[in-house]
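so i finally got all the pieces together for this one. its two components total, 796 residues if u count the protein bits. some of the lines might not be protein, just check the labels. i wanna see the whole assembly predicted at once instead of chain by chain like last time, that was a mess tbh
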Amino acid sequence: MYDGYLSLLGVVFVRGIAIVGCGMTRFGQLEDKSLTDLMVESSLMAISDANASESDFDAVYVGNMFSGEFNRMTGIASVLVDRLNLLPAAADKIENGPASGGSAIKEGFQAIASGVSNLVLVVGVEKMTSIPNPKVSSSVATLTHPTAEYKYGVTLPSLGGLLAQLYLKKYNVKRELLSLVAVKNHKNGAHNPYAHFQKEITLEKALASPVIADPLRLFDVCPVSDGAASLVLCAADKAKEYTDTPIYIKGFGQATDIQMVAEREDPTVLEALREAARKAYSMAKLEPQDIDFAELHDAFTILEIVQSEDVGFFKKGEGAKAVEEGKTWLDGELPINPSGGLKARGHPLGATGVAQAVEITWQLRGEAGKRQVPGCETGLSVNFGGFGNNIVVHIFQR
Amino acid sequence: MYDGYLSLLGVVFVRGIAIVGCGMTRFGQLEDKSLTDLMVESSLMAISDANASESDFDAVYVGNMFSGEFNRMTGIASVLVDRLNLLPAAADKIENGPASGGSAIKEGFQAIASGVSNLVLVVGVEKMTSIPNPKVSSSVATLTHPTAEYKYGVTLPSLGGLLAQLYLKKYNVKRELLSLVAVKNHKNGAHNPYAHFQKEITLEKALASPVIADPLRLFDVCPVSDGAASLVLCAADKAKEYTDTPIYIKGFGQATDIQMVAEREDPTVLEALREAARKAYSMAKLEPQDIDFAELHDAFTILEIVQSEDVGFFKKGEGAKAVEEGKTWLDGELPINPSGGLKARGHPLGATGVAQAVEITWQLRGEAGKRQVPGCETGLSVNFGGFGNNIVVHIFQR
């Protein structure tokens, strides 16, 4: 049970925060839906789920990266409040690369915890499959170091490949274990009606897929997807006005690291994640062993393994072994990415952090159907911005 | 003096917020400085002004519209913390059209008021003069209603022209008074070493300038500028650790309105401003007559007049008369835009809201030199997003 108040920095928060409604579109190639359509669809689902009325909302946060570049729209939070008639609610877009959704949840948390807002809608959205792929890849690359990486043509998959090479060698890990992450996440995604890919793959198929950035192959890399996800947040002490099954945000942490990957002392260690997790555990008064399951940011299979270590679940170098031993599978002791993760659910950049929270909410309510983690009480999300230099962690509890 | 705590929605905030450092670049055509250079320059000035050390910062917010479209950079808040070595501070970009800076200040306020952060750097920045003008105009137009305005080729000056036509006719106001706003703001800007334009203009010159969108002429329209502005915010009870002259954010309000201008019942009334101002006055426990001077968002001269009414300074239809009677000039009873405003200081979109707060801080400290408003104690800013459909008001006091 939720015990009322949270604290950090020696300051007791005015009040805790609860999720009282959530919704998402199916992720995938959604050709007939505009960016606005996506935001509206997931938000109406969340507002209805919360039994909230339009006039109750004080603020709206939209996590998104590329509305300007890909959809020729700015001020998209203003578009949403207009379309949903949430006027005169405050409205802002939050951009933190692929962690824009996680950052948007954080801003919603702070809006309520500060006492400024009572009821907040948080949305993550990206509409990108209609954009020619060279433009998608080169736009995503703009989140790398502007003068030390981007200008030399670094892409995200290339950084992922370098990280995988370094990791496999340093910790003496078999390359096959990367593909096993994809097999696991596709197996989970097959049970998720909101996933971009809803079918299982075999290890043989993953191992035989084309090389993208050695040693990463096609099935080690998440797809480009369209989609949106929404949450309704309110003060914990008012949550029962909206739902019988509030899910509490017990803590969060956000931290940054040296942007240029080659400048980091050990690029196989995600220092930003370690610090963000430390803050989140501290705020929640919980430890890694209290977490029942997690949604990690597996934009590349190697990232799930590395994150599962730096968030405190496994010793450094032992994340891959946990996959091999079945620990992180749906029936294991610590399921990771029951939703299918970015690999199978898909990765509409700004939507991902919010979709992670939606999945965790469904899991904690026991509404996750065939992919339900039995009896779970506490879930954690890792949303990965930049190439690991800006990471947001949230801890949720029923 | 600051009385400790603020309240809203019946909830007492954990703590109030103070500005303990500020800085800005000169605004203008800054060809030899990158977007990063601009952020770094204003931020180092603010950090030095606050006598803060890098390791003190918990969070960074950057207000910006077009880093992706114009500068091929995303995650620019992460870039800044890396360059300034504020690691591992949390970092996010906030986009709310031309009110991105105002929204960034609000997020900084909430980060501290919630108890999550102690010391926050807020930055506004835009680098746009190097972009060919057709791209600037068409990009700015992406903040209009996507299917009811943007797709038909609406631009911001065209909406400004229509508003001016409607206003002049409805309230029987002489067109010359629009130009008088420009004359006043150029006169103020001539004393501002950070202004894009530091020279006075004559009424005759303004009236003879080329028509941009009838009845708006060249001197009724703000320039395209590069620039950045930064603030250091902290909890009010810790402000004296950083400065002897803290300036307090006594209140703020943000509100949205119907996006499509033609759908509003009376387009000469800025309902979003009325609501945002109501919230800000309520939080600050102040009224319009308590405000000594204001920085309004005069992207077009007509906007200063309309805002001066809807923020509560003058009756509807009498804002222009106040300019004619000298009330809003530097030596008048309620000076508006002592900085020179957007018209003369310039308008690097995301930077403007933060620059308004920097000017007000300097004024309240008595550091504004030849443009000082004598003996001022309370200042107000209006930052205008979209075409008036998302407005942020802040009230500051020494």
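Chain B is about 35% helix and 20% strand.
Residues 1-12 of chain B have pLDDT under 50 and may be disordered.
anyway lmk what u think
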